[in-house]
Specification:
alpha+beta; two-stranded antiparallel ribbon; five-stranded mixed beta sheet
Length: about 220
């Protein structure tokens, strides 16, 4: 592993090509394993998934048990699946397997002032998703709905100055009992790009994290 000039910790590929020494059939997807590790350690995490969806497919894999902590195990998984890791708070994993670049453009867009947010972590994630869609499709309207059971943690994020959407997302998942954000991009056969963004709270979304999966690619 090595540090790039941008400060990202780049992890080389270790291919998983069939069942090898020490490997067992995975009962979880790598994404579910990462979510489990992060939640158990209350470690904020952000993930920009690759179009190939390699983290979302159960396969023969080694989930090492001889590493010192959850973060080290998570770094090993990132290494196996060609993800770079930005080591900070949160830990941000980004696929090196490419995409259209549109999602990264939206996440890196800077806002002079980003408004305050209040509500559940899920609500805040929906808000960021709306900002992403508004950036990518400024002439289209955006609407969303969400519900709850009344036991969710209520959070407050103050206005922020000169921040990117990714920095906003990073801040959100450090609030309260912490959580993770997941940004996805899929491409239809016609070449149309679809993006989704969501946040999951370690306090509110234990079951969703246990069964975490990629969103289905758009059909058209």
């Amino acid at each position: 592993m090595k540090l790039t000039p941008s400060g990202l910790l780049v992890l080389a590929l270790f291919g998983l090509t069939g069942l090898g020494p020490g490997q067992t059939p995975a009962t979880q997807t790598p994404l579910q394993r990462i979510a489990q590790l992060a939640a158990s350690a209350h470690m904020p995490v952000g993930i920009v998934l690759g179009i190939d969806r390699s983290l979302c497919t159960p396969e023969y894999a080694t989930y090492p048990s001889d590493v010192p902590d959850a973060k080290a195990t998570l770094l090993t998984l990132a290494q196996q699946y060609q993800y770079t890791v930005q080591d900070g708070n949160p830990l941000v994993l980004r696929s090196t397997r490419g995409g259209s670049g549109k999602l990264d453009d939206a996440l890196s867009h800077t806002y002079a002032t980003f408004p305050s947010l209040s509500g559940t972590m899920s609500y805040m994630g929906n808000s960021v998703d709306g900002w992403i869609l508004s950036y990518l499709h400024p002439r289209q309207g955006y609407g969303a709905s969400w519900g709850g059971n009344g036991t969710e943690e209520e959070l407050v994020s103050s206005p922020m100055q000169n921040v990117t959407l990714e920095q906003v997302a990073n801040h959100i998942v450090t609030l309260g009992h912490r959580g993770m954000w997941l940004a996805e991009e899929s491409m239809t056969k016609a070449g149309k790009v679809h993006t989704t963004f969501r946040t999951l709270s370690y306090h509110d979304d234990a079951d969703a994290l246990l069964h975490l999966s990629c969103r289905e690619p758009a059909a058209q």
